[in-house]
Amino acid sequence: MAAGWVIKQMNSLLHKIAAAFGRLFAVSLTLIISLSAAINSHAGGAAEDIQQLRDLLQPITSLSARFQQQITDADGYELQNSEGLFQVSQPNNLRWVVEMPMPQQIIADGETLWIYDPDLEQVIIQPFNEDIAATPAILFSGDLDQLDQAYFVTQLAEGHFELKPERGGSLFDSMIIRFDQAKPTSITLTDTLGQTTHISFSQLELNPPLSADQFVFQIPDGVDVINNAN
Question: Which pLDDT tens digit goes with each residue over 159-207?
Fold first, then answer.
């Protein structure tokens, strides 16, 4: 019974982390890196708005930055504030390192997703597509046929774009991406419950050389490993 309880708790934790990853990280960061291929003449919105966003996103093939993330509920109450480092490169390479307040690493190489929690001394290994396919992270999956009509794009102001899902069933209602001098400065994501995630970027580098090794997690000795990839 004890073993069953532990498994249940770990699965619960996994679902929470995977959901947070899908909503907050994958949606926001990979939107920058891969949305340009999705926004084409079939997408909703004014043609000039779509083209301007495409022109900003298309040159980006990799990205590295510091982030600060703030999550608030529908009443404006702060639920979480975190900061750290992220790196992303096409097509599906991700590295999200939370440094404060609770260290955590989420790393993916396009096939495998590792979630490392140092406080729990635990690594969870997932197939990349298993948790990602059901979230807006489909944006960077490479399956561009599904993205042809995914978003209605509106330019709210110079360098500020709002994207609303064209189809129902999405985990979010809207995303706002802000650029300054052709660099993304922040993303604001509002989900279907009114919860808002605001991610701001600093020390941002566009198209830095990132090696494949940076997106493969080396499991430390002595940690518990929950391998759901088999």
Answer: 998 888 877 666 678 888 899 999 989 988 898 889 998 989 999 998 9
SS3 for 227? strand
Number of H-type helices and E-type strands within the chain: 4, 13
> If 0-12 CB within 10 Å is exposed, 13-18 middle and 19+ buried, where does residue 37 land?
middle
DSSP 54: H
CATH number at residue 39: 2.50.20.10
Distance CA 229, CA 110 (A): 13
Residue 61 is encoded by which pair of tokens?
């093939």
The residue ranking higher by pLDDT, 62 or 66, is: 66
What's this model's pTM, rounded to 2 decimal places?
Answer: 0.76
Rg (CA), the chain: 18
Residue 40 lies in domain: 2-227
- Burial of 200 from C-beta contacts in 10 A (0-12 / 13-18 / 19+): middle
